[in-house]
Amino acid sequence: MKLFLISPPAAVADETELVGEMLAAGLARFHLRKPAWEPAAIADYLARLPVRHLTRVVVHGQPSLVREFRLGGLHLTAAARAACRRRPLLLPGQTLSTSFHHLAELREHRRHYDYVFLSPIFDSLSKLNYPAAFTIEALTKALAALRGRAGYGPQVMALGGIDEHRLAAVRQAGFAGAAVLGSVWQSADPVAAVGRLQSIVG
């Protein structure tokens, strides 16, 4: 099972240094999501990360920066996905991902992406009044059904309310991995929090 980390929407102290430490320690994928930031600010953030780790960084909604910095991939927001009629121009090896909030979306659009986030799996740790949208039983059944179909397509990553106590349920449901946010960035030591999660993921 894989562990992905999503950035907090607003900057935190020493964020790029913390992310650099996490990537150096083996974090599989870091998603840079700063919805209120201008492209220049995101480019400055990327320039502060160690170049050797940029192939494991994914940016939300900035295809030109994905190509310029030779990042790991591009993540499409719901709005970008709706406006996108063809796959964005990416370099060989760069991934395309998106987020879904309904199983029907996953069934219909999954083949267009290399991996997808499905959320919220549990009550959100970082958003108020954002409760779980699924039961583990329903997810287990749905993911098993998708795996049984020809052309299953992307890996499905669980997102929403995931902490170290819920990783076992994520694994048992059949997800390829988990994407985390609040359980790391609300911790007093985000690097240690990622380390604990990685030790459970294996």
Automatic annotation (TrEMBL):
Residues 4-182 form the Thiamine phosphate synthase/TenI domain. Keywords: Thiamine biosynthesis. Pathway: Cofactor biosynthesis; thiamine diphosphate biosynthesis. It comes from the Bacteria. Pfam families: TMP-TENI. Transmembrane segments: none annotated. This is Thiamine phosphate synthase. It comes from Hymenobacter antarcticus.
